[in-house]
Design a protein that fits this description.
three-stranded antiparallel β-sheet; mainly alpha; about 70% helix; Multidrug-efflux Transporter Regulator, Chain: A, Domain 2
Length: about 120
């Protein structure tokens, strides 16, 4: 079992984020120690790492909650979970292409400045 501080450090999250995810239903309420401190399992730590990954891809809290509810339902929701993750993957790939285009535009602008153009 891990304390909230240990989980926060391992997952690269702050304690407030973990509490937020718990309040929003993305994480089951933590078990408690004799001193009433939150305790987490390795599975919960891994889930928090995945939540962090999904958030970094731009997935919203409500979509992550929907995904989590499907996970708790069991394997019957596997096709829907795959679709949700594939949709997020496609969105991320689109975002990457957009960022590449933006980067190319900035590089072009820098090149123009080095050539003495002032606009």
């Amino acid at each position: 079992m891990f304390t909230i501080g240990q989980v926060a450090k391992e997952a690269g999250l702050n304690i407030g984020a973990i509490r937020f995810y718990e309040r929003k239903g993305l994480l089951e309420p933590a078990a408690r120690s004799e001193k009433n401190n939150r305790l987490y399992t390795e599975n919960e730590l891994n889930w928090l790492v995945f939540i962090k990954c999904l958030r970094k891809t731009g997935m919203g809290v409500e979509d992550i909650k929907q995904y989590y509810e499907m996970v708790k339902t069991g394997t019957t929701t596997l096709p829907q979970r795959i679709k949700l993750i594939q949709d997020q993957k496609q969105k991320l790939l689109g975002d990457m292409e957009e960022k590449k285009a933006q980067l190319a535009h900035l590089e072009h602008k820098i090149d123009r400045y080095y050539r003495g153009e002032n606009y």
